[in-house]
Amino acid sequence: MSPSPTPPAGAAGPLLSLRGVSKSFGAVAALTGVDLDVAAGEVVALVGDNGAGKSTLVKVLSGVHAPDAGTITFESREVSIPTPAAAQQLGIATVFQDLALCENLNVIENLFLGREMRALRLDDVAMEVRSRELLTQLSAKIPSVGVPVAALSGGQRQTVAIARSLLGDPKVIILDEPTAALGVAQTAEVLNLIERLKERGHGVLMISHNMADVQAVADTVAVLRLGRNNGVFDARTTSAEELVAAITGAADNVVSRRAGRAGPGTGAAAEEGGRAGAGGAQDADAVEEPDDDRPERVAPGGLRKGAGDE
Questions:
Q1: For the chain, which residues make up each domain, given as ranges?
Q2: Which of 39, 70, 94, 122 could disulfide-link to 21, CB 3.0 to 4.6 Å?
Q3: For 128-176, what is each residue's pLDDT tens digit?
């Protein structure tokens, strides 16, 4: 396990910092003493098995659950997040896995739902202009802002949900399983979008089960296991096997065994091959060796043939 990456000298501290955050539901401790840092322009992947506490931590940061203990620091000042509205005002936007989009509404209507621009009446032109600006900044591949969301692909819907989160100009964006149930092309589209959020200076907290996606875009990987921290890794130097070992709590697993298998000409495999080859040669010698004492064979028709009758 490698320690948390140290920021360069003179660099600002983390944008969002959690220290000793705990949350229990009755007798069940969902989180116990969790620490987490997210810096501006950094992608932090939060990984862990089912029941590790990832969703609870997201809900604490988004104002759905209040922590029982611990502190949350945002821009170097301690804060509390009692409601989702407080999280948005603070500068923390969350895109949940279900996206919360209305399929019968178009892109513009989904982006501004509940945040309509109006004076005496709805300003449709201003909302369309703002929608196009947001999608252009994200290099989004949306055919038209007037198309219903039901006609969009999974990756395009994820783009709309992320663009909606940017309306409040947040500093930290939390993405809950952004590539779940997406195809290869759609996943690549969302990962490119995360890179663009990073380039724009946003701190990104990405929850994911996909190690390939994590290693593709994350700078730091924080592992939760049974509601506790189980390591913070540099995504550039840590293998998928090490991450899986931290997630499962065991170094001996299917992934590590597959990676540890030697090539066909080395190690144990070669030794096994050598033994198999030697055994095969012995068998061949046994087959080719003449046997003068072989028993009589019965030929077709019932006549017996001895060794000298061939």
A1: 16-251
A2: 70
A3: 999 999 898 888 888 899 999 999 988 899 999 999 999 888 999 999 9
* Phi, psi dihedrals of residue 137, rounded to the nearest 5°: -60, -35
Stated pTM of the model: 0.74
Assigned architecture for domain 16-251: 3-Layer(aba) Sandwich (3.40)
Q: Which stretches of the chain are assigned E, i.e. beta strand?
A: 16-25, 28-38, 43-47, 69-74, 77-79, 92-95, 172-176, 203-207, 220-225, 228-234, 297-298, 304-305
Q: CA separation (Å) from 219 to 138, 143, 268?
A: 20, 32, 36
CA distance 175 to 11: 25
- At residue 11, φ and ψ (nearest 5 deg) are -75, 150
And the tokens for 48? 């862990």
Give the residue from 3, 24, 7, 69 showing the smallest Cα distance to 229: 3
